[in-house]
């Protein structure tokens, strides 16, 4: 249970122990839990994964369990959505590493906890699609053995799906959680420090991720046309926004490009961008492939274009060469 | 009043409309005769109201939303509040290669073949039961397949896209599916392709495809077989003939046990063969449409303004017997004078018509069809 502190059993246990937030935050008995809680967040920021600690005695386990709500409070107190996403993923990854070594019965129990219906090594395709990373070719449904609606998976693959369910669950919980004000009193210094690290990383990430000079010619054309105030057709805007979103550009930055547009209407444009990037619609549209862009008359290929079939491959290829 | 509209009105006096599930949560849309625009964002609180609307307006085209909404008549998606959507596959002749050169009847036959492939995917692979699936002749040039199982209603666009990719074989990773195995012999390594016709999913489909194809080849006479083989990429006459000669009974038996091996010829055709087969198995389901979670589809029981034929339910067991030009016809035998614009040959209601350009006295059902297709005009 201490290895999976986000399951309902652990939550029940914490409740039954009757330990209040004040105790966890201030009582010297829980100093270890607080230290470990801090560590969880820092590991998430620095390594992208929470690392295991040896759990030998009962007290080890108790501290480990209590460290989880502490870590959550710290994450929420930073007010960083980026950290929430990163932390949720870090916890989920750790759970995956542990689950891989558990027996089938345990995996089944975990699946049930997260509402994923499996029987043995079979999972219904609807549940599969909800959690499988299908952007990866090997996870695409078409490359899976499926019979009568059930996808057949290996144990570690089921664990991978549960990882995603855990990530979603933690992330959603944290997005709607408020940290009690006392947290800032206790962890004020740490929170500032973590915030700094996070914003540094966010910044670095962004610089690493978006380098406009590496964009394929079609996207460059669309951007310069939009910036110079030309009226770009709908499909062109769609292509550009989905592409920029896919390479990690924030909505505000995309919005800036549009601000020169003759019919610029900030509210409307923001709504449309947020729709396409999945902030409103829940669907994160993928950029169209080269074939499609060509049929729309937006393709102006250069030499490298001949080697790719998707604008994102162009970008990745060029970045690797850099 | 225009001829077609009068005829449609007479049908909409007593139409046989099949109302969608959760009828009052759907958006309805209409195109009226003589208008190019669509009237959208309409909802009906009772079935009676919809029937009255149909009779009064006698629209050329009637649609409803595959999605159901909290406020179906709201003007924007956000205000509509999406609650879920049926899974719809639109099998239309538009998406079939060479359809423009076919007659109407040939086209529909071709779409039927695709439809059967789709059904095999939906039932064998996706596990839907017959009662989850409804098939409708679209009234135009294709068929619609509706899946309304509770499991699929809440699927998002991305997840629907995965279903379409599965059915069309897009993103299929052949190397992952048909594994090449090296067997170390004394002095050299022999590569064997392992195929397993008993597996589910694409792996089994491809294996069965290969076996069926090679069996078929082995049963052809030599010249024909070589001709067929040479149509494949990278297969020359030499490879083709030596492959045909190697297809002994023993080899076919080994193949059925999943071993496709040894002969260089086999190896040479393996990749192109798999490719060719997977393409020929590709469905031609209209992709963007299926992944769309908020599209409009024709209302079953309504008439198609460009053919006058009815959007008609097709019994899944009797797809082969279904004949749109007989089973989707709602009009009668009353004689109407029609000026036919160009020569037409057509079989409708099991009657053969061979019409030259000029004025003919034709039964109402054919008159409506020709006028709707703009192949003729009512003459006074």
Secondary-structure blueprint of this entry?
The complex is a heterodimer of chains A (322) and B (380).
Chain A (H helix, E strand, L loop, with lengths): L7 H10 L3 H6 L4 H17 L10 H21 L2 H19 L4 H10 L4 E2 L2 E3 H7 L14 E2 L2 E3 L2 H21 L6 H28 L7 H11 L6 H13 L4 H8 L7 H11 L13 H6 L15 H11 L1
Antiparallel strand pairs in A: 1-2, 2-4, 3-4
Helix pairs in contact in A: 3-4, 3-5, 3-9, 4-9, 5-8, 6-8, 10-11, 12-13
Chain B lengths: L2 H11 L14 E4 L7 E4 L4 H11 L3 E5 L1 E3 L7 H4 L1 E4 L1 E6 L11 H22 L7 E5 L4 E6 L2 H4 L3 H12 L5 H4 L1 E6 L4 E6 L6 H19 L2 H9 L6 H10 L2 H8 L2 E2 L3 H18 L5 H5 L4 E3 L13 E3 L9 H4 L7 E6 L3 E5 L2 E5 L2 E6 H9 L3 E3 L2
Antiparallel strand pairs in B: 1-2, 1-3, 3-12, 4-5, 6-8, 7-8, 7-13, 9-10, 10-11, 14-17, 14-18, 15-16
Overall average residue pLDDT of chain B? 84
Query: How would a crystallographer describe the biggest sheet of chain A?
Result: 4 strands, antiparallel
Shape of chain B: flat
Bin the strand percentage of chain A: under 5%
Question: Can you tell me the residue ranges of chain B where pLDDT is under 50 for at least 5 consecutive residues?
Answer: 278-288
Task: Let me know the number of strands of chain B.
Answer: 18
Uncertain spans of chain A: none
Structural class, from secondary structure content of chain A? mainly alpha
Give the chain pair forming the largest contact, with residue counts. A-B, 25 and 30 residues
Amount of helix of chain A: 55-70%
Strand arrangement in the largest pleated sheet of chain A: 1-2-4-3
């Amino acid at each position: 249970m201490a290895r999976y502190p986000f399951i309902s059993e652990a939550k029940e246990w914490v409740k039954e122990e009757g330990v209040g937030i004040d105790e966890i935050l201030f009582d010297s008995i829980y100093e270890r839990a607080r230290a470990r809680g801090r560590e969880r967040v820092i590991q998430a920021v620095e390594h992208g994964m929470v690392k295991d600690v040896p759990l030998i005695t009962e007290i080890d386990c108790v501290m480990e369990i209590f460290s989880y709500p502490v870590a959550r409070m710290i994450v929420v107190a930073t007010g960083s959505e980026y950290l929430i996403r990163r932390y949720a993923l870090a916890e989920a990854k750790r759970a995956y590493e542990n689950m891989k070594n558990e027996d089938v019965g345990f995996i089944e129990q975990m699946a049930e906890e997260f509402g994923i219906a499996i029987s043995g090594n079979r999972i219904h395709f609807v549940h599969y699609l909800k959690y499988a990373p299908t952007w990866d070719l090997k996870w695409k449904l078409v490359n899976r053995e499926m019979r009568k609606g059930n996808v057949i998976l290996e144990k570690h693959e089921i664990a991978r799906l549960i990882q995603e369910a855990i990530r979603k669950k933690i992330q959603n919980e944290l997005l709607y959680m408020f940290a009690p004000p006392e947290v800032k009193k206790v962890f004020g210094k740490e929170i500032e420090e973590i915030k700094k690290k996070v914003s540094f990383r966010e910044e670095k990430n962004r610089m690493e991720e978006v380098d406009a000079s590496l964009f394929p010619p079609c996207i460059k054309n669309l951007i310069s046309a939009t910036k110079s105030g030309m009226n770009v057709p709908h499909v062109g805007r769609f292509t550009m926004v989905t592409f920029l979103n896919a390479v990690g550009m924030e909505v505000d930055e995309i919005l800036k490009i549009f601000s020169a547009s003759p019919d610029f209407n900030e509210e409307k444009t923001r709504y449309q961008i947020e729709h396409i990037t999945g902030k409103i619609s829940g669907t994160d549209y993928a950029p169209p492939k080269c074939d499609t862009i060509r049929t729309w008359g937006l393709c102006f290929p250069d030499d490298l274009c001949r080697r790719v079939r998707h604008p994102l491959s162009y970008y990745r290829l060029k970045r690797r060469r850099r | 009043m225009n001829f077609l509209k009068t005829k449609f009105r007479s049908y909409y006096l007593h139409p046989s409309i099949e109302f969608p599930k959760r009828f009052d949560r759907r958006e309805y849309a209409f195109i009226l005769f003589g208008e190019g625009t669509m009237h959208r964002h309409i909802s009906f609180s009772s079935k009676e109201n919809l029937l009255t609307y149909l009779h009064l307006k006698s629209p050329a085209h009637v649609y409803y939303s595959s999605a159901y909404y909290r406020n179906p008549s709201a003007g924007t998606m956000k205000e509509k509040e999406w609650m879920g959507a049926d899974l719809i596959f639109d099998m239309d002749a538009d998406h079939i290669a060479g359809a423009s050169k076919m007659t109407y009847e040939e086209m529909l036959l071709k779409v039927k073949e695709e439809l059967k492939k789709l059904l095999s995917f939906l039932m064998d692979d996706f596990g839907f039961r017959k009662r989850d699936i409804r098939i409708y002749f679209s009234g135009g040039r294709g068929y619609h397949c509706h899946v309304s199982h509770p499991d699929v209603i809440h699927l998002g666009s991305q997840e629907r896209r995965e279903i379409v990719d599965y059915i069309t074989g897009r993103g299929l990773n052949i190397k992952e599916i048909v594994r090449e195995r090296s067997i170390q012999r004394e002095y050299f390594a022999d590569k064997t392709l392992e195929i397993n016709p008993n597996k589910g999913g694409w792996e089994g489909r491809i294996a069965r495809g290969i076996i069926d194809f090679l069996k078929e080849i082995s049963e052809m006479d030599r010249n024909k077989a070589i001709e067929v083989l040479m149509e494949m990429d990278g297969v020359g006459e030499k490879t083709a003939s030596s492959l045909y000669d190697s297809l002994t009974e023993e080899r076919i038996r080994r193949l059925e046990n999943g071993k496709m091996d040894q002969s260089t010829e086999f190896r040479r055709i393996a990749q192109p063969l798999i490719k060719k087969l997977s393409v020929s198995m590709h469905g031609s389901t209209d992709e963007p449409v299926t992944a769309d979670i908020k599209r409009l589809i024709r209302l079953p029981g309504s008439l198609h303004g460009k053919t006058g034929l009815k959007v008609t339910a097709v019994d899944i067991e009797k797809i082969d017997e279904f004949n749109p030009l007989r089973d989707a016809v709602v009009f009668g035998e009353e004689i109407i004078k029609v000026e036919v614009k160009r020569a037409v040959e057509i079989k409708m209601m099991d009657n053969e018509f061979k019409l030259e350009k000029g004025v003919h006295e034709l039964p109402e059902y054919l008159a409506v069809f020709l006028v709707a297709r703009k192949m003729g005009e009512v003459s006074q």
